[in-house]
């Protein structure tokens, strides 16, 4: 049994996608999967399902949704994988292997990658595997402003993982391969200065120093105009290093094949 939250909310039994029912029901499952093996109160599920003016029958409706989800999981043979929705008082918990939930698998891969700093090829592979789990914004088909707030940490973790992966790719001398991705990301997230550092370094190492400096000037105008911020010290040092052609910026040596 597999639960997918990094995109639309899905549950899979082998190669078969389960029909999880209406939006509110999928939202309940998503909340339980995000907190896998932890209790989630009925009151919280009510608040998330009806952000404004929940009906008087809201708690009963949550019980009905959970009952229907139990039936769906039972029909899919979830018990063979030890998957069930447990009740304790006025709360529910999805009992399952955390690695059956893509959001938890994503975080586990990040932790594994960070432990492999001595092996950049392996680190890059683990980070790429983590990023490939994402199929869209988290809980894309059930999101609300409150749910989006709960997912803020996940979205931040994805951006950090992207920055780390790009940094490792640059360490491996693969600057040409990541320039287009970096340019898109800098356009989408102009306030994340680490991405701009990576883009400028990739352009410089690709023999495109004027473009690196142009990217800096454009980003500075946006930072000042939209956010009231000056580029940070790292960006300013990088601009000066590019202007003087600092040899320390040159492409790192390729790792020998093993």
Defining key terms:
Serine Threonine Protein Phosphatase 5, Tetratricopeptide repeat; three-stranded antiparallel β-sheet; 258 residues; Arc Repressor Mutant, subunit A
Q: Could you characterize the architecture of this molecule?
A:
This protein is mostly helical and 258 residues long. It folds into 2 domains: 1-154, Orthogonal Bundle (Arc Repressor Mutant, subunit A); 173-258, Tetratricopeptide repeat domain (Serine Threonine Protein Phosphatase 5, Tetratricopeptide repeat), CATH 1.25.40.10. The chain contains 11 helices and 6 strands. A 3-stranded antiparallel β-sheet has the order 1-2-3, covered by helices on one side. A 3-stranded antiparallel β-sheet has the order 4-6-5. β5 and β6 form a beta hairpin. The mean pLDDT is 93.
Percent of sequence in beta strands: 5-15%
User: Gyration radius, to the nearest Å?
Assistant: 23 Å
Strand and helix order:
EEEHEHHEEHHHHHHHH
What is the assigned CATH homologous superfamily of the largest domain?
Answer: Winged helix-like DNA-binding domain superfamily/Winged helix DNA-binding domain
Q: Which term fits the overall shape?
A: elongated
Write out the strand line-up for the largest beta sheet, numbering strands in chain order: 1-2-3
Mean pLDDT level? 93
Our count of helices gives 11
Please state the oligomeric state of the protein chains shown.
single chain
β-strand number = 6
N-C termini distance:
37 Å
- CATH fold-level label of the largest domain: Arc Repressor Mutant, subunit A
Determine and state the CATH class of the largest domain.
Answer: Mainly Alpha
- Name the CATH architecture of the largest domain: Orthogonal Bundle
